[in-house]
Amino acid sequence: MSVNLKLMSTSHCHLCEQAESLLSGLVAQYKFEYVVVEIIDDSALYERYANTIPVLKNLNTNREISWPFSTHDIEILLTV
């Protein structure tokens, strides 16, 4: 079963760019897919995540991790 992740993000966020770079580095090693969600386009997401982005959510388990996170933290999110 493939793991599906959602990266809560917004444009011009250097931390979000770093988070996406970490994901890009792992995608070849692990079987997962991710989408980047622009929180500014959804008022509920903006209200929930505006002060904590980037946030990475495992859609299979509903677990989330907030920045700062490392590749190791992503690996744990993928396997738990």
General description of the model:
This protein is of the alpha+beta class. The radius of gyration is 12 Å and the shape is globular. The two termini are 13 Å apart. 36% of the residues lie in helices and 26% in strands. The chain has helices at 14-26, 43-49, 71-79; strands at 3-9, 32-38, 55-58, 64-66. The protein has one domain: 3-Layer(aba) Sandwich (Glutaredoxin), CATH 3.40.30. It has a four-stranded mixed beta sheet, with helices on one face. The mean pLDDT is 95.
Helicity, as a percent range: 25-40%
Task: Give me the side-by-side strand order of the main sheet.
Answer: 2-1-3-4
In terms of DSSP E residues, the strand content is 25-35%
The ordered H/E elements are: EHEHEEH
Q: State the shape.
A: globular
Number of domains: 1
Within CATH, the superfamily carries the name Glutaredoxin
CATH architecture: 3-Layer(aba) Sandwich
Number of helices: 3
Q: How many E-type strands?
A: 4
Query: Uncertain regions: pLDDT < 50 for 5+ in a row?
Result: none
Rg value: 12 Å
N→C terminal distance: 13 Å
- Main sheet: strands, sense, barrel: 4 strands, mixed
CATH topology: Glutaredoxin
Question: Overall pLDDT, averaged?
Answer: 95
The CATH class assignment is Alpha Beta
| Secondary structural class | alpha+beta
List keywords for this structure.
single chain, 80 residues, alpha+beta, Glutaredoxin, 4-stranded mixed beta sheet, 3 helices, globular
Brief characterization of the structure:
With 80 residues, the chain is an alpha+beta fold. It has helices at 14-26, 43-49, 71-79, and strands at 3-9, 32-38, 55-58, 64-66. The chain has a single domain (3-79), classed as Glutaredoxin (3-Layer(aba) Sandwich).
